Amino acid sequence: MDVRVKICGLRETAHVAAAVEAGARYVGFVFFAKSPRNVTVGTAARLAATVPPGVAKVALVVDATDAELDAIVAAVPLDMLQLHGNESPDRVAGIRARFGLPVMKAVGIAGPEDVEKIALYGKVADQILVDAKAPKGAAVPGGNGLAFDWTLIARKYWPCPWMLAGGLTPDNVAEAIRLTGARQVDVSSGVELAPGVKDAGLIRAFVAAAQAAA
Ligand SMILES: O=C(O)c1ccccc1N[C@@H]1O[C@H](COP(=O)(O)O)[C@@H](O)[C@H]1O
């Protein structure tokens, strides 16, 4: 089983290169002003230009307007949009239709009632990002380095592709894959030295651990 890895919140060419060389299949750029990983469209365009074919370039947005998405999509060559806010199923479908890009919708998990939303959004999105629900009052709805109870999704099946996220690290990703059966994993904080500061060694260790788990 091949496990696909997404490294999210990249801001420097050296870290994009480390992710690509390690074997990551997705790289993510965050367009959210409150995030320590926020990038401008100019920086994202420069980073995206260094990504080879076969590695998907993902723009992460939070409740973005059409105008904000227009500006991102016009400037950055993208392969996917990641919607990480409170977008409704109708809004997800609308973005997918308007921009003609595959859409990955994040669903935050804190309890069994949240797990039901995966199937709901799976009807309108191309992929689901199954992430930890941000704690009340958190400044950002993701990228908090928090894991959820993986047993909530153990032995579940959804027809759409999905990716596991939330508090993954080089040390716990193998156990997360074993428990959940995830075939795709996404990480941000777990490959950082401080919020927004990626580390090439941790990126390599994470990809190697995820692939070894397969
Ligand atoms: O990374 C961010 O700053 C961010 C901001 C707003 C929404 C989502 C964000 N990150 C996503 O959250 C998951 C989990 O992050 P972590 O590994 O627990 O730090 C991450 O995979 C990003 O896709």
Automatic annotation (TrEMBL):
<keyword id="KW-0057">Aromatic amino acid biosynthesis</keyword>
<keyword id="KW-0028">Amino-acid biosynthesis</keyword>
<dbReference type="Pfam" id="PF00697">
    <property type="entry name" value="PRAI"/>
</dbReference>
<protein>
    <recommendedName>
        <fullName>N-(5'-phosphoribosyl)anthranilate isomerase</fullName>
        <ecNumber>5.3.1.24</ecNumber>
    </recommendedName>
</protein>
<dbReference type="GO" id="GO:0000162">
    <property type="term" value="P:L-tryptophan biosynthetic process"/>
</dbReference>
<dbReference type="InterPro" id="IPR013785">
    <property type="entry name" value="Aldolase_TIM"/>
</dbReference>
<comment type="pathway">
    <text>Amino-acid biosynthesis; L-tryptophan biosynthesis; L-tryptophan from chorismate: step 3/5.</text>
</comment>
<dbReference type="GO" id="GO:0004640">
    <property type="term" value="F:phosphoribosylanthranilate isomerase activity"/>
</dbReference>
<keyword id="KW-0822">Tryptophan biosynthesis</keyword>
<keyword id="KW-0413">Isomerase</keyword>
<feature type="domain" description="N-(5'phosphoribosyl) anthranilate isomerase (PRAI)">
    <location>
        <begin position="5"/>
        <end position="208"/>
    </location>
</feature>
<comment type="similarity">
    <text>Belongs to the TrpF family.</text>
</comment>
<dbReference type="InterPro" id="IPR011060">
    <property type="entry name" value="RibuloseP-bd_barrel"/>
</dbReference>
<dbReference type="InterPro" id="IPR044643">
    <property type="entry name" value="TrpF_fam"/>
</dbReference>
<dbReference type="InterPro" id="IPR001240">
    <property type="entry name" value="PRAI_dom"/>
</dbReference>
